[in-house]
Structure formats: C-alpha cells, structure tokens
Specification:
By secondary structure, the chain is α/β, with parallel strands linked by helices. The protein is 47% helix and 9% strand. Helix 3 (33-39) runs parallel beside helix 13 and helix 4 runs parallel beside helix 14. The protein starts with 8 loop residues before the first helix and ends in a 13-residue tail after the last helix.
C-alpha cells in the first residue's frame, strides 16, 4: 500500500522472539500514557454544539461575505476562495524540514502507529516523496490524490490546480483514531538542498505555500547532525513570513548527543535560523526525541519529557481553540473582502468622475490604475472608513486585477442593493461587527459564563483587524 510499510524489522524480530525476549524488547518502548492525558483523548466532546456552531459560521459566510466575493471577484486577486470543506475541516498540523529528520517517525509516535502494518515509512535515507495527509476515517484505507481533489466535501479540491504530476504525489491515509477526530496531520517530502524544484515534476514551493496558508500549527523539524541551511530551506522560511505565531521549531533526536554537545547544537541552530526569522520574539524551540523508543542512557530524559509534554500542550491548545480560530479566520477573510470591495468601488467611482463624452476610456483608466495616489484611491479609503493602512493590499496587484477584469464590468457598492437581500456592504459589515463576534462570544460564554459578550469580542466596535489566528 502506497505510503505505508507492511512490516518493519522490529516486528520481524518480535515475531521470532521468546516470551522472555519479548519482555526485554517491550521494555525499550517509551511509556505513551502522557500523550493521551495531555491531549485529553479520553474526554468526550459535545459534538452537537460544535457542529451547530460550524453550521452558523457557514451560513454567515454564504449569506454575508461570499456575495461580495463574487460581485467583485476577490478570488482573482488573492487566489483563495473558501470552500465549505475548508470551513468544516479540522485543524491542520503541518510537518516541514530537511530529509530524514524524523517527521514521519514523530507522526508514528503521536498516533501509536509504530510496529503496525500502517506506520509511515521511515529510514536513514530520503523516504517520504509524497505529501501524505493523515486524517480520520471509519476504517483504515489509503486515498489517492486524484480522489481527494475530486471530493468537494474535503478541503483539498483546490490542489487540482497544481497538475496531475502533483496529485500522483499526494496521498491520504484514513484511520479511526481519537486524535484524528480533532486534527489532521500532513507529512511533507524532506528538503534536499541539491535538488532543483523542476526535478520534482511539480511546483513544490507553491504546494508548500498552499499548505502553509491553511495550517493551524507548523512543526519545522531539524536533526542535530543536519543544521546546514541551503537555498531550498531559505525559500521555505521566506514562505513562512507572517506565520511566525504558528511555527514551532523542533530539535529532534536530541538524545543522540551528550548534554554539552546538545547545547552547542542548540546555539548553532539559532545562529543558522536568525537571518531567516527576523522577528522580535522567535518561535518556540522544543528539544527532545520524538519516537517510540526510550531515551538513550545518560541523557537529560527529564528535560526531554517536559519538552515533549509542552509540545503536546501546544498541540492541545490548537485543538481546543479550533472553533475560535476558524471564526477569527473567516472574520479576517471578511475584512479583506470588505476592503477589496471598497477599493474596487472607489476605482469605479473615480473612473466615472473622470470620464467625459470625448474621453478615451482605456487612457482614462490607465492613468488611474498607474497612479492611484494621484486620485487618492487608497487614501480616501483610510479617511472615510475604519480601515487600517496595514490591511491595505498592494497597489500593483490592482493593475494586474483590472488588466483581466475591465472596470466597466463592476457596479458601484451603492448599486449593489436589493429590496429583499439588502445591500452587500451592510451585510458584510454586520457580519464583521455583530454576527461573527456574537458567535465567538457565545462560545466563550459557554467556556467562561462570567464574561459578558462585548467584553469578549468588543462587538459594538467598528471592524478592526484584531482577530488574528494564534
């Protein structure tokens, strides 16, 4: 089965071992009870409330945000149209890093797949050549990438745009597992510095960007013996710009070094990554050994265990906040769509004001789109609406946008109203200022009943981009 390994060497040895030898072999496996305790896998969830909240979120998006998306072709500007599958999808945890650093072994360990016919293949050489999506299912089975992309109920249908060569390198693995009921793991091919992107047969960086944009947590895994930073890794960290709050650095296989050497490697890792992560507060670094076997003797096992529990708590926080993060993400998306609608409206209004009977429409609009500051396009949005200058899109993007979509194909916002449906601008502003904060406050109130709804969300305020994903 593609993406799986049938039986590993350890299983073969175990099958031939005597009962005494089996006891010795079992003793080298690490205790996993803390994983279930930290992630609270035994706790029952009220799935009915969660499903109802998602349904309300989906209704708000379709009735209040999507109409403006379609009216002003927002998807052609940002190339990110939100599907129902993305709204209802579980949090995504993405594993990135050089080859053979332990990404697949870490997933095997978290899910308890080691020494089963279904564990991800691991080895000292580059082994994972596919993007492997591990998700929940009623039975264990593999799903080909072509099937995943064709299924509109999943959130992976947009991946079709990367071509058939990529879909052949995409595989899904479904299995019944408590953790996978709450989260989806994505294992990626390891970065090989001497391999050019063209040799992969598909746009590797673009595919990575697609997953990065949708990931709730990003684990960048390193091996103490592979700290060299090359062009492909530099490109990866450039793609991670703006996502620093989701990034966690993992120094894996830490028990393979003596304590003094580990300290040197830890410092070398920061020295290598400092030019690539230019932020005031660097991402959290976890130092441990994430695989099923016991730590090497005479190493800092207590430190490694605490680091592992800290990482699990980090993962659990993402799982428990998944609905809040989803609402915040849709609200942030709604703010961007609203700004786009206001800008297109301003371009259309300026074009109509500058046109006369004898004017050449193409020359008039070329002057506007080439120098929008001359006509106060962006400044008027800042002056007349409560939009932050940091949320305004790139001016050059609109030159390309209107190159494909003529300005005459858009109506002004004042004309986007109907007696039954209301006005597009009113609906999206109500979603941003009332509906989505109200949905968020109802969730927070159930967790903390003493907190009033407007204390939790500031629901009476005009839209500000405060609901960033944590």
């Amino acid at each position: 089965m593609k993406g799986f390994v049938s039986v590993c060497c350890f299983v073969s040895v175990l099958a031939l071992a005597t009962p005494e030898e089996e006891e010795v072999l079992d003793s080298i496996l690490r205790d996993r009870s803390h994983i279930e305790e930290t992630l609270r896998l035994a706790a029952e969830e009220n799935s009915g409330d969660y499903a109802a909240a998602l349904q309300r979120l989906r209704k708000i998006y379709h009735s209040s945000i999507r109409p403006m998306e379609h009216a002003y072709k927002y998807n052609e500007l940002r190339q990110h149209e939100i599907s129902d599958g993305e709204i209802t999808s579980k949090p995504m945890v993405l594993f990135l890093g050089p080859w053979s650093v332990g990404k697949s072994s870490m997933i095997n360990y978290l899910l308890g797949l080691q020494d089963t016919p279904y564990q991800l293949y691991t080895g000292a050489e580059p082994t994972t050549s596919e993007f492997t999506v591990i998700m929940h299912g009623e039975k264990i089975r593999s799903v080909e990438g072509i099937v995943m992309a064709a299924d509109s109920s999943r959130s992976f249908s947009p991946l079709e745009k990367f071509g058939q060569n990529f879909l052949e390198k995409l595989i899904g693995i479904e299995m019944p597992h408590k953790l996978l009921e709450r989260v989806t793991f994505v294992d990626t091919p390891g970065i090989i510095e001497n391999r050019k992107q063209q040799e992969r047969g598909y746009p590797f960086n673009d595919v990575c960007q697609w997953f990065i944009d949708r990931a709730d947590l990003i684990f960048v895994v390193f091996d103490p013996t592979k700290l060299d930073v090359g062009l492909e890794l530099e490109m990866l960290f450039r793609q991670l710009k703006g996502r620093e709050s989701q990034i966690r650095i993992i120094l894996n296989k830490a028990d393979s070094l003596a304590t003094q050497d580990l300290m040197r490697v830890y410092g070398a890792l920061f020295w290598s990554l400092a030019p690539l992560i230019n932020v005031t507060e660097p991402p959290r670094v976890y130092v441990s050994s994430f695989w099923p076997y016991d730590y090497a003797p005479n190493t800092s096992r207590e430190l490694f265990k605490r680091e592992e529990i800290s990482l699990l708590e980090d993962l659990n926080q993402v799982i428990e906040n998944r609905l809040e993060n989803k609402i915040a993400f849709i609200r942030q998306h709604g703010i961007r769509v609203r700004i786009h609608g206001l800008l297109v409206d301003r371009y259309v209004q300026t074009f109509k004001e500058k046109m006369s009977f004898f004017s050449d429409p193409e020359l008039v609009f070329k002057e506007i789109v080439d120098d929008p500051d001359k006509f106060y396009i962006f400044k008027s949005i800042l002056a007349k609406t409560n939009v932050s200058k940091f949320d305004l899109p790139n001016r050059d993007a609109y030159r390309d946008f209107f190159g494909i979509n003529p300005v005459t194909s858009f109506k002004q916002l004042s004309a986007q109203c109907s007696y039954i449906g209301g006005c597009l601008l009113d609906k999206i502003e109500k979603a941003i200022t009332e509906d989505l904060p109200g949905l968020l406050s109802s969730i927070n109130s159930s967790k903390n009943p003493t907190l009033s709804s407007c204390e939790a969300t500031g629901c009476g305020e005009k839209p500000k981009n405060r609901y960033r994903r944590n």
